[in-house]
Amino acid sequence: MSLDWGYTDDNGPSTWAEKYPLAAGARQSPVDIDTSKATSDNSLVDREIDWSYPSNCSYRIVNTGYGWRVDTYGDDTALSGGPLSEVYKLEQFHCHWGATNDEGSEHTVDGKSYAAELHLVHWNSEKYSSFKEAASQPDGLAVLGVFMEIGNADNAELEKIISLIPKIIHKGQDSQASFDLDFGSLLPESKHYWTYLGSLTTPPCNECVIWTVFKEPITISERQLEVFRSLKSVGEEDAIEPEEGKLVKNYRPPLPLGNRVLRECGP
Ligand SMILES: NS(=O)(=O)c1c2ccccc2cc2ccccc12
Ligand SMILES: [Zn+2]
């Protein structure tokens, strides 16, 4: 069964606009962060970006066919400040990666790719009544982007997620888990970031995201990244060769920033 969209030559990002016209819009994500174009904005410094995530929460991890996604039950989560005018709730987080370590992030910095990129997806629960409604609004969603670079040590917090990957190798599989996830360890120590108005990086590519991309990467080990690449984009019932259908890449290359403003907080 052919997918509507994906990351192969047949259904990858260059074809998405055929079925998802928003993908050809002027406010698309990701972008290459040209640091020479970033402008400092004191209002971002005056209202420090702030988040509150529970230390112990129940989660559902699912293989979407495009990667893994952890659904949170974001009642007592909050993201505010920085470029945000309202309080946003955490809905889910997921990751993008490539076949080799010199690619994989969606945003790039002065043309440099990282090995992977973590996205924490939030919705404007102060203005809108549901995630679905928020995803149709220009200020509906706020995504935190965290670059991941290869390090020698395993990332302990990510390991809690990675330990569940073998249970969701095939598309559609999911696993319920309650673990003590310290989100603070999934975010870099520095709160310095770039921010701009963009979109979902996957179809339907709604232009509804306020992006905040942290400047400081976190680390992930080569072994951990290989576990991500062991996921399959097809269901268990799809009889294919063992090496076929492996999710070795799931990132969209950068789109033009155009006349959008790129702001930064911190050096
Ligand atoms: N890469 S992404 O963060 O744009 C993204 C979403 C962003 C906001 C809301 C829902 C999203 C769902 C995604 C599903 C798969 C991959 C990226 C996704
Ligand atoms: Zn994403």
Task: Produce the secondary structure layout.
Elements: H1 16-19, E1 32-33, E2 39-40, H2 42-46, E3 50-52, E4 57-63, E5 68-71, E6 78-80, E7 88-97, E8 108-109, E9 116-124, H3 131-134, E10 141-150, H4 156-162, E11 174-179, E12 193-198, E13 209-214, E14 218-220, H5 222-229, E15 263-265
Bound molecules: anthracene-9-sulfonamide (MJT) and zinc ion.
Structure description:
With 267 residues, the chain is mainly beta. It has 5 helices and 15 strands. Strands 2, 4, 5, 7, 9, 10, 11, 12, 13, 14 and 15 form an 11-stranded mixed beta sheet that branches. Strands 1-8 form a two-stranded parallel sheet. A hairpin with a 4-residue loop joins strand 4 (57-63) and strand 5. The longest helix is centred in the last third of the chain and has 8 residues, at 222-229. Bound molecules: anthracene-9-sulfonamide and zinc ion. Residues 94, 96, 119, 201 line the site of zinc ion (ZN).
